[in-house]
Structure formats: C-alpha cells, structure tokens
Design a protein that fits this description.
The chain is α+β, with helices and mostly antiparallel strands and about 160 residues long. About 35% of the residues lie in helices and about 15% in strands. Strands 1-3-2 form a 3-stranded mixed beta sheet.
Length: about 160
C-alpha cells in the first residue's frame, strides 16, 4: 500500500463510519516509532506508521485510522478531541475504534530498572521513594515546600 491508497482508505473510512468527508492528507510516516499514527493539529493531516500494516495487518491499520479520525473530526467541530475527553471516548466507542494500538511484535522492549531513588526533605524529613530520578533544584517537598536532598539509590 502506498500513500495514494492510504488516502483513499482514510476517505472511505471517514464517510463510512463518521458520515463526514476527510478533506486533508493522510500519509505514511516511517519515522514514527512508538505510535500507530498521529493527527497533526496545525495542518489537520494524519500520519500513519506503516510498520503496523506490515506486521499486524489491515484490521489493525483500520483501527488506527478510526482512532485518528476521531481526533480529526472532534477537533474540527470544536469538541473535546484529547484522549481524556468524554467526547473522544464516546466517539471511539460509537465507531468501535481502539483507545490504544497494539504493541509491535518485532519491537525490542525496554526492561524496567529495579533502582529506587530516595529523597528526603531538609525541613520535615518526609521521605520520597521514586522509580525515576528527579531534579532536586526544580521540585520541593509536597508537605512543607522544603528543599529535597537525594539520599540513596537502592537496587
């Protein structure tokens, strides 16, 4: 499938499931790594990750297109187009679109680290355990707004 065939497919899905025309451009973007597709707010175009078609098939591609078209149509109508908005969730359900795309089978997965970062407040001695390191010059204690100090990294 090339970009022209993708454009026709997106236009057909838009009229079939949304009863509205898709008036912008749909293309494959080979640089997308962690997502099946994206809707661009400024240009109103849709970009699709071709690896999902190659590795998971046309049904997965159609689900991704429906998801991106939900963003597209809601944004153009001035309704809630973000993942957390109820308008978006309702439209996903109505057109039977997935909220998230499947994982690619050939994608290497990162193994989670077992490190625990421990921080303490200088004022009230509140202890904070975090899986990710934080910038102590930027964040303060949530209890008393005191300065945080890194204590230890457990493994």
């Amino acid at each position: 499938m090339d970009d022209k065939e993708l454009q026709v497919l997106v236009e057909n899905i838009s009229t079939q499931y949304f009863q509205k025309p898709f008036m912008h451009q749909a293309i494959f973007n080979s640089r997308l790594q962690t997502t099946g597709g994206r809707y661009l707010l400024n240009s109103h175009n849709i970009e699709i990750n071709k690896k999902y078609l190659e590795q998971l098939g046309k049904d997965e591609l159609i689900g991704i297109i429906k998801h991106e078209l939900c963003h597209y149509h809601l944004h153009l109508e001035g309704k809630g187009y973000k993942h957390r908005d109820s308008d978006f969730k309702n439209l996903l359900k109505n057109v039977d679109a997935p909220r998230f795309c499947s994982m690619l089978p050939n994608r290497p997965r990162r193994t989670p680290s077992n490190k625990i970062h421990i921080y303490a407040c200088k004022k009230c001695n509140q202890i904070y355990r975090r899986k990710r390191s934080i910038n102590t010059s930027r964040y303060v204690c949530g209890k008393c707004r005191g300065k945080l100090v890194k204590m230890v990294v457990d493994s």
